[in-house]
Structure formats: C-alpha cells, structure tokens
Amino acid sequence: MTNKEAIEQLLPLAKYSVDKNGVGTFPMVSTPLQAEAIDIAIKSLEEVKGLRLLADWAVECGFGFDNIPEEYEKYKEEISDMGYTEGLVYIARKEAENEL
Fold first, then answer.
1. Do 71 and 91 contact (CB within 8 A), yes or no?
2. Are 24 and 35 in contact, with CB atoms under 8 Å apart?
3. Are 6 and 13 spatial neighbours (Cβ–Cβ below 8 Å)?
4. Which residues, other chains included, contact 72 with Cβ-Cβ below 8 Å and sequence gap of 6+?
5. Tens-place pLDDT, residues 59-83
6. Residues 13-49: pLDDT tens digits?
7. pTM of whole model > 0.90?
8. At CB < 8 A and 24+ separation, what contacts does 5-8 make?
9. Domain boundaries, the chain
10. CB neighbours of 81 closer than 8 A, spacing ≥ 6?
11. DSSP symbol at 24
C-alpha cells in the first residue's frame, strides 16, 4: 500500500461531523483521541514522503555514507541489502529512535 492509498483509507475516519442536535462526532471512530491519532498518522505519512524526497535530493547533491562514517559502520550489516537512499533513511531513522 502506498502512502497515498493509506491516507485515502484513513482520511474518512478522521472527519469530524456535527449532528442535527449540534453534537460533534467522529463517525468511524470511538473517541476524539482516536480521531487525533488518525490525523497524526495521516500527517506522518505525508511527512515521510517529503523526507524521502529530501533524502533523494541529498544523494543527488553528494551527501552519502561518507558524510556519516560512524553511523554507517554501526549499521552497514543491516543495510547491506537496501538501496542507497533507503540505507540512508534507515540509518537516520535508527539514530532518531536512539535519541528518544
């Protein structure tokens, strides 16, 4: 499933509507918190697409594993079967997880 397809599936779930009595509801979810989580998921999918494009541009401009040698050494076995940009994104994601 692509990000676009996922967003198309999630978007109707996060639509807020008001009934004839003026009561707001989220028709496909149980709570406003679930609707907020769906909205965050949609925004995250959109952001991921943008970040992958940014990574492609960085590679085109000469950014690569040689710019992050310590991180590359740490993950080189894990990324051995990945494409170049996919490997850079993987390393960035793992490093971001480690910062949390």
1. yes
2. no
3. no
4. 65, 66, 91
5. 999 999 999 999 999 999 999 999 9
6. 666 555 666 655 555 655 667 667 777 887 888 888 8
7. no
8. 6/45, 7/42, 7/45, 7/46
9. 1-61, 64-100
10. none
11. E
- Identify the burial level of 1 via C-beta atoms within 10 angstroms of its C-beta, where 0-12 means exposed, 13-18 middle and 19 or more buried: exposed
Contacts of residues 13-19 at CB distance under 8 Å and 24 or more positions apart, as own/partner, are 13/38, 14/38, 14/39, 14/42
Q: For residues 25 and 16, is the Cβ–Cβ distance under 8 A?
A: yes
- As a whole number of angstroms, the distance between CA 61 and CA 59 comes to 5
